[in-house]
Amino acid sequence: MMRLILCLLFAFTALSSQAELLRYNNSYQGIIVGQSTLADTMQLHGEPLKVNKTLDNATYFYSGFNINISDYKSTIVSIAITDPNYVDINDMKVGFPVEILVTKFHALIDRDGYYVDKNNGIIYWLRNGVVTTIALASELNF
Which of 48, 51, 55, 95 is the most buried (most CB within 10 A)? Predict the structure, then answer.
């Protein structure tokens, strides 16, 4: 699942001459995407519980969230939040049913997919009709 999230986030952020690159300053518990670094995160939250490194990025796992850093940037490119107490700018939470997203955004949404809030740089991941992860992106390409 995490690998899929990373792949899609990087697909959204891949540079294209025809796409519009949008940048965001979303934050979670003192971490600001596109600005904060791993050192900033460790100063606020300590050592990660787990680290998963690949050829071009690394994911640092903490309780209730993880951060993603790519090799081409030193700052955090996304924060994937699974904390059920977190409420985002759209008043959405992990555990909310897909119907709330449908009502809020007036969109058709797959029960086992994702929905991108282009205005706020938020990606809602869904499984079995429920929001499982709220991902805050630093950049998205449209």
Answer: 48
Alpha-carbon span 120 to 93, nearest angstrom: 15
Q: List residues bridging with 68 in a β-sheet.
A: 59, 78
The pTM of the full predicted model, rounded to 2 decimals, is 0.85
- Neighbouring CB atoms inside 10 A of 28's CB total 20
Total structural domains within the chain: 1
- Tens of pLDDT, residue by residue, the chain (142 residues): 555 555 455 555 554 456 789 999 999 999 999 999 999 999 999 999 999 999 889 999 999 999 999 877 789 999 999 999 999 999 999 999 999 999 999 888 888 899 999 999 999 999 999 999 999 999 998 7
Residue 15 within any structural domain of the chain? no
- The CATH number linked to 132 is 2.60.460
- Domain that includes residue 136, residue range: 2-10+20-141
Q: Is residue 87 part of a domain?
A: yes
Question: In Å, how far are 33, 64, 121 from 26, measured between CA atoms?
Answer: 6, 17, 8
CA angle (17, 115, 103) in 5-degree steps: 130
